[in-house]
Write a structure and sequence with these properties.
Elements (H helix, E strand, L loop, with lengths): L1 E10 L2 E10 L10 E6 L10 E3 L1 H9 L3 E2 L1 H9 L7 H30 L5
Parallel strand pairs: 1-5
Antiparallel strand pairs: 1-2, 2-3, 3-4
């Protein structure tokens, strides 16, 4: 199966990702079929953060390439993919995680009052 996913490039603490088409069985930074864009999360200007060759992305999607979750979100924001049920599922998952974080943040505050001091 052919996948569209990101491979990491760049140096330490300065990530840069290439959006590539490759076989599913390849490792993250393995041999690729075609590079169709890049993503720079550090760039200040949102217009310079992402570049995708839309014609090639449409081609690969039409022949059955499956995008990774992150790339699928990027393509959906550019209207290259229809919004699917995964968006509702991901927003539900985010709400659950936020609720868990809020509960975890409240719990240690209560536990610190009763905890004896070391020393």
């Amino acid at each position: 199966m052919v996948r569209i996913r990101m491979t990491r490039a760049g140096r330490k603490n300065r990530p840069f990702y290439r959006i590539q088409v490759l076989d599913k069985r390849e490792r993250r930074d393995g041999a690729f079929i075609e590079q169709i864009g890049w993503y720079d999360p550090i760039a200040k200007d949102p217009a310079k953060q992402l570049k995708i060759d839309e014609a090639r992305a449409k081609h690969w999607l039409s022949v059955g390439a499956q995008p990774s979750d992150t790339v699928r979100d990027m393509l959906a924001k550019r209207s290259l993919l229809p919004s699917g049920p995964w968006e509702a599922e991901r927003s539900r998952q985010r709400k659950v995680v936020e609720a868990q974080k809020a509960a975890a943040a409240a719990a240690p505050a209560e536990g610190k009052k009763d905890a004896p001091k070391a020393g």
